[in-house]
Amino acid sequence: MTRIGSIVNKRVKGMAAAAAVAVVCGGIALAGSPVAIAEQSTTKCYNGTGNTKKFDLPGKTDIHMNADPCITRYSSGRMTATIRIGWSEASLPAVGSGHKFDDFKINVRLERRPNGSSSDSTVASKTCTVTSTVNASWSGDTSCSVTVSGVYNSGYDWSSDGWLRYDIDNDGKGGSDWSLTGSPLIR
């Protein structure tokens, strides 16, 4: 065997041995770093009919939209508030230009209240402009989230809440706000 063949053979055997150790030791990667273990989480989402709306679009097919605020607590103490929206055409085939909105924003808030209280305070918030996403197709979905690490405290109930701000193209009314019903509380 040539010197280069001997070196390659030793490296292959070494990698095979490292792979065997990884299997036996339960997750040591070849580079020696631990394999990531999925973080446990609990999520609660609003699933009622209060966050459903039909948008009357002048000269175009109307669309139906739903919005679902969700709160997620992770085992690390990280908290995430998300609002997911989904939309679809109210009738087929879709008629008119795809430019449905001049502006469309999702505002999501991570809120908390002392256990037993009904007074929420905002821990963090974020506004996402999703106009181009909503205008891109007659049906779809998108979301906006805000995350804060290490904030969880069991002395509080946590929730996700927010609003949608929209300006329908060519309706002459300007912008409007749609206040959402928030997620269930998570403790």
Automatic annotation (TrEMBL):
<keyword id="KW-0732">Signal</keyword>
<protein>
    <recommendedName>
        <fullName>Secreted protein</fullName>
    </recommendedName>
</protein>
<feature type="signal peptide">
    <location>
        <begin position="1"/>
        <end position="31"/>
    </location>
</feature>
